[in-house]
Design brief:
11 helices; seven-stranded antiparallel β-sheet; single chain; five-stranded mixed β-sheet; alpha+beta; 477 residues
């Protein structure tokens, strides 16, 4: 947070601080951003808005990438430029045009393709006569006064009739291993080539006269993805004398960019495999019952995608090289094993989810049955309460009538006949509360064996429900 403190001179009186000044001076407290910004703006201190952070970070990332990429790019361009430059022999300081002014046969070899698996290097061949040999030659056709030209490049020999051209012909040269192909991308090879030109005098006799011609070589050794080192010198016989030709020794190996990219792909496959291994373990060991197919789908996809990731390496040989023993084989093994584990985990999750659904289904059935039972019970209870209310009203009225009858000299037992009749009429729907709780009725005053007039009146309980039912049965008899 920017500080708005300013040094003060001694003896200077300042006006009282406002709220904005206190917000700027108090740097230890967490203040509202709007108040802080307004207070700091009052002292001329601006704050970078939040929306400007993302472009600033993006610019820093781009600058960092350019600082790494541009030096690598310019180094690569310099290497390619050096390799694309022609190497001339026997006079290296002359250009090809200057070389053609000499009395030599200029043989141009352009390295166009290297096939490491078959150990074959392909050169594009071009022959231009120079000096006196150019006389009579037109439009690239070689005319040696009716004689043919024999060119020997390595183990291959080409015969060019008078008036013919050799421009654009492909010559394949076998390579020798320096570092084996199985050590890709650190493999390297060596090409040994001898170049000679001879004039063959055509005649009708059986004797063939061959004249060795002076030869110069222009070598273009640049090939994409390969780094080359070449040595040119005179062709010598075993005794050390010159044989009238030129010897070439070319060593080819993978370029630095190819080596870097191949190692990067190997590390990338390891990163993908280990990252997915952690993800798959979390998926397999989780107690989550949700059935998700994203991790299993990724597992199966990686199992088939990893070989294509390996194939991204430039000019990579078939499976079985040393670098596969350090990466690809174990990556595939790891992905295959964890894929099987993930599929088992998916099956287990499906089983747990099915059990959970079945359990929830049973619970819903039980809850539904309980709800229906409660509803039926509530409906039955309502009907009982309705009947009980009606019976209670009838019993109450009958009891009141019996009380009046007993008061006038009725039965000394105090039992209401109306209540007994109600029980006999409908013993099921009779009020349970009225039968269970014994009601009390006042006893009328009697004489003799009866209560005397003016005597105290006590409440006597009615007979119990079983006694009432028994008396009802006796009355029926």
């Amino acid at each position: 947070m920017p500080s708005c403190r300013r040094p003060l001179a001694e003896g200077v009186d300042l006006p009282p601080m406002t709220g904005d000044d206190e917000a700027c001076l108090d740097g230890d407290e967490e203040l509202d951003s709007g108040t802080e910004e307004e207070g700091c703006m009052a002292h001329g201190v601006s704050r970078l808005p939040d929306w400007a952070i993302l472009p600033l970070v993006s610019c820093c990332v781009v600058l960092a990438l350019l600082a790494v990429i541009l030096p690598v790019y310019f180094k690569y361009q310099a290497t390619v430029t050096v390799q694309d430059d022609a190497r001339l022999y026997p006079v290296s300081y002359l250009s090809k045009e200057q070389m053609l002014q000499q009395n030599v046969m200029v043989v141009s070899l352009d390295l166009s393709r290297i096939h490491a698996e078959t150990r074959v290097a392909t050169f594009a061949l071009d022959v231009d006569p120079g000096g006196k040999y150019e006389q009579g030659s037109t439009a690239g056709a070689i005319d040696l006064g009716g004689n043919s030209l024999a060119i020997t490049i390595g183990s291959q020999s080409l015969s060019i009739a008078s008036g013919k051209s050799v421009s654009g012909r492909a010559v394949e040269i076998l390579m020798r291993d320096v570092v084996r192909l199985s050590d890709y991308p650190f493999d390297s090879y060596r090409i040994n080539v001898s170049v000679t030109c001879d004039e063959v005098h055509d005649s009708n006799t059986s004797d063939v006269k061959v004249t060795s011609l002076p030869v110069a070589v222009v070598l273009y050794e640049g090939e994409s993805g390969w780094s080359t080192e070449s040595t040119l010198g005179p062709l010598l016989w075993k005794n050390g004398s010159e044989a009238g030709g030129i010897s070439l020794a070319i060593t080819v190996r993978r370029s630095g960019s190819i080596i870097f990219f191949s190692i990067f792909i190997v590390l990338l496959m390891w990163a993908i495999s280990l990252g997915f291994f952690v993800l798959a373990l979390r998926y397999s060991l989780s107690d989550d019952e949700e059935v998700a197919y994203d991790v299993p789908a990724l597992a199966v996809g990686l199992l088939f995608a990893l070989p294509f990731v390996r194939a991204v390496q430039p000019d990579v040989p078939t499976v079985g090289i040393a670098i596969d023993m350090l990466g690809f084989f174990f990556n595939m093994l790891l992905i295959a094993v964890i894929t099987v584990v993930v599929l088992f985990a998916l099956s287990s999750r499906q089983s747990r989810q099915n059990k959970k659904k079945e359990k929830e289904k049973q619970q819903r059935k039980a809850a539904s049955a309980a709800a229906r039972a409660a509803q039926h019970a509530e409906q039955g209870g309502g009907d009982s309460r309705t009947g009980a209310g009606a019976g209670s009203m009838k019993t109450t009225k009958a009891a009141q009538a019996e009380t009046r009858t007993d008061a006038e000299g009725g039965d000394d037992v105090g039992t209401s006949m109306a209540t007994i009749k109600a029980v006999r009429a409908d013993p099921v729907r009779a009020p349970v509360a009225a039968l269970a709780e014994p009601a009390r009725a006042p006893l009328p005053p009697v004489r003799g064996n009866r209560v005397a007039p003016g005597a105290a009146v006590y409440d006597a309980p009615l007979a119990s429900p079983s006694l009432l039912l028994k008396r009802t049965s006796d009355s029926g008899k």
